Amino acid sequence: MALKERGAVESSAMPLTDHLRELRSRLVKSGIAIALGMVIGWIYYAPLFDWLSAPFMGAVDQAREEGRAVTLALTGVADPFVLQMQVAAVAGLVLSSPIWLYQLWRFVTPGLHRHERRWAIGFVAVAVPLFLGGVALAYAVLPLGLEVLLGFTPDNVENIVSVDRYLSFFLRTILVFGIGFLVPLMLVLLNFAGVLTGRRLISWWRWIIVGVILFAAIATPTGDPINLLLLAGPILLLVAIAVGVCVLNDRRRARKRGEEPDYAQYDDDETSPLDDTASPLDDTASPLDDTASPLDDTASPIGDEA
Length: 306
Fold this sequence. Notes:
Number of helices: 11
Distance between the termini: 50 Å
Low-confidence stretches: 1-14, 275-282, 302-306
Structural class: mainly alpha
Helix content: over 70%
Number of strands: 2
Order of helices and strands: HHEHHHEHHHHHH
Strand content: under 5%
Mean pLDDT: 75
């Protein structure tokens, strides 16, 4: 009996053990891919750094034409090595992203239904171009923002910018732009999950415009109206497309439901119609009603003998 109980406990623990082994395998494969990407980034460090520093160098040339001294500098003995490691790490994460995203996908998909997997594949296929579009826009806007910021340098003052601080500023800017382009996709995801409806999003159009403008004002390097509109305009266009997709999806669901009432179209404080169809069991007498038990009025033989 004890052996059977022990076997039952071990069999119940095996799924968790297999799950942890699979997680370890996925992490090891992802780590190897990132390490190989870092090696490539280390080898091609010079052209990668030229690409990263190109927006700043364009702003430096503009500042020098206006008589201001701006310099991109390293201030520590070990800073060149640390900088090359940082650039290689960023390159490794970017180059190996298809592999570690695939490993993450394979780890998550066993817990999803078939239709949820199809949704996820579609969202990933759309998310990558949107994120890259945000990064490209950030790379185009960044020189304008740097020119405005460096333009505040007083005359006869040399502006020495640390390379690591510029790299942090560069990465933060492109990440914010890329994430901003993913917000409309999140709205569609919530609609497909049944959390938000297209009608509700349309009713929030004022707040959506205000939220996007506030996000663009905080995310842009300078906060001036030109850069703000360069970010807010595309996001608002993508949000409008996302709302249209949500409306079409709501109509598709309504046609699929057929005669079933669509309670999602009513607000939280709005009364929805109730189904007045009587249940087939209403006013139907139970077969046990008024039925005497076969044991009723039956004398107990024990009582008579007593």
